[in-house]
């Protein structure tokens, strides 16, 4: 499984539709302060289901929508699509290419799609559970997170290790079964 492309439109500083294609090897994103590097990583976390506006450096979720600049009006919609090459079926779906889209409108309406089909947030979260991807995963390590992991409570640290080990899905199934 491999990250292929990221398409950002109306999200944070990316007013125009911007596509980043990830070629083989390592991709580095460089640019001056404030040019949008962190916004790209936040787009990745957002499209995979991040629900905390605060962790995206905003007060409320619509703050991720392009807020306008000196010469541009604010936009009404943010949209991000992430595309994976899934020919090894690492993501548990029959698709050999998987794209996930999230859209948010200023009136609060939101939409999630997997391969252009409407779905629920839960479907997106399930797609990434125990893969090491996903909104809370260890594959996206933001500034300060390493320190936060070291300083976290043992139970929280255990959750991180369980996700790495791939047992979180079973644990959640067990909890659900016990509630029923
Ligand atoms: P640094 O090198 O300092 O870490 P960076 O390249 O990571 O910088 P970002 O933090 O990604 O930069 O981008 C910050 C810029 O994004 C700021 O100029 C900010 O005004 C802009 N920005 C954030 N949210 C929005 C929004 N909703 N609409 C328009 N611009 C936004
Ligand atoms: Mg930054």
Automatic annotation (TrEMBL):
The chain holds residues 1 to 180 of 1189 of the full protein. This is Chromosome partition protein Smc. ATP binds at residues 32-39. The gene is smc. Homodimer. Contains large globular domains required for ATP hydrolysis at each terminus and a third globular domain forming a flexible hinge near the middle of the molecule. These domains are separated by coiled-coil structures. It comes from Pediococcus inopinatus. It is found in: Cytoplasm. Required for chromosome condensation and partitioning. Belongs to the SMC family.
């Amino acid at each position: 499984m491999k990250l292929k492309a990221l398409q950002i439109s109306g999200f944070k500083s990316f007013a125009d539709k911007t596509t980043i294609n990830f070629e083989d090897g390592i991709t580095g994103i460089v640019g001056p302060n404030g040019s949008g590097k962190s916004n790209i990583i936040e787009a990745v976390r957002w499209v995979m289901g991040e629900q905390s506006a605060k962790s995206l450096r905003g007060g409320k979720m619509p703050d991720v929508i392009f807020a306008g600049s000196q010469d541009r009006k604010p936009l009404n919609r943010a949209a991000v699509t992430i595309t994976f090459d899934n020919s090894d079926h690492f993501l548990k779906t029959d698709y050999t290419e998987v794209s996930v889209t999230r859209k948010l409108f200023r009136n609060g309406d939101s939409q999630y799609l997997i391969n252009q089909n409407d779905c629920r947030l839960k479907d997106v979260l399930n797609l990434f559970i125990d893969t090491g991807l996903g909104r809370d995963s260890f594959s996206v390590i933001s500034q300060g997170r390493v320190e936060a992991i070291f300083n976290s409570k043992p139970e929280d640290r255990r959750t991180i290790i369980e996700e790495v080990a791939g047992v979180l899905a079973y644990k959640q199934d067990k909890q659900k079964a016990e509630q029923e």
